[in-house]
Amino acid sequence: MAYEHNGYVLHKREVELKGGRTQTIYYFCKAGNKPKSGEPCDKPDNKVVGINKRTGLPYLKNK
Prior knowledge:
Elements: E1 4-5, E2 8-16, E3 22-30, E4 39-40, E5 47-51, E6 58-62
Antiparallel strand pairs: 1-2, 2-3, 2-4, 5-6
């Protein structure tokens, strides 16, 4: 089940960095919209959701 917060669904995508290391990128998309890449996912245990004060958009940050 994907994590949802205030009408936004959490997605993740694996990217390869220049050094060859892979990193997981987490981002929120409006519910009902399908991003170009990535897949819905659960919230990682070591992250908390913050809200951008200017835009009102959710984001993940470390505990």
